[in-house]
Amino acid sequence: xxxxxxxxxxxxxxxxxxxxxxxxxxxxxxxxxxxxxxxxxxxxxxxxxxxxxxxxxxxxxxxxxxxxxxxxxxxxxxxxxxxxxxxxxxxxxxxxxxxxxxxxxxxxxxxxxxxxxxxxxxxxxxxxxxxxxxxxxxxxxxxxxxxxxxxxxxxxxxxxxxxxxxxxxxxxxxxxxxxxxxxxxxxxxxxxxxxxxxxxxxxxxxxxxxxxxxxxxxxxxxxxxxxxxxxxxxxxxxxxxxxxxxxxxxxxxxxxxxxxxxxxxxxxxxxxxxxxxxxxxxxxxxxxxxxxxxxxxxxxxxxxxxxxxxxxxxxxxxxx
Length: 320
Known about the structure:
By secondary structure, this protein is of the alpha+beta class. The chain is built from 11 helices and 10 strands. 41% of the residues lie in helices and 14% in strands. It has a 5-stranded mixed beta sheet with strand order 1-2-6-4-5. It is elongated and about 80 Å long. The two termini are 33 Å apart.
């Protein structure tokens, strides 16, 4: 099957599938981030509210993937050793003091007493602050075992590698739990390869972001400076996803191809809903995606024709 025939085949089926968008499930990421909700490794209690936010923020700043934390006292009791110079994270802990019983009680007892008619004035809320240390700074504690099974078999696609080199787009596996193209540095940021469930999932995600990168002014020159939630943002997402679907024929086959294509349709359907009041937009996005896919395929074969760059209409023109 020729590239043009496959692109037409994909386009026809996308249009047909979009007639019943309610059929498609919620889109699922092709990767899993091994960072869990932070928790106390002794009590096995997960941090909530502002404590979770603060700890996650510190984890992101310091590049910590181990979600386990413990207080200094807990470390001493366990005969663990906090490394010298380790910086703690400060958290707050709320306690309830019962003036009748003259003692601190837990939240469940407090709620039971209120249901039995006790006035709120009977209780005093107190806040205490603790500092906890990350398990990466604690010697002697058990090794961390991620609940996510990391896939070590993900390899670079020769087709996509040639494409990115010809287009001169940098690809970095430093995106954490996100995959995105940043136009200001003309670079793609992906999660680490080991986070992806399948080779097909990795290849398609990279292909999707490469499609976004064609919008750079040095390539097809589309306007990519729109915010999430706008029609223009949704339109660009449709172009990137549809064009990458059209190029799937050039990627290595995978056992999950059918499930992944259904997931791709779910992703397209999710953005289709953002422009539901303009049903012709999906048709225009498909036409633009065909041009994007042709451009990318040329790049994968080491060719970017100057004539092609000059004759391709901008996405904004195709919407008029």
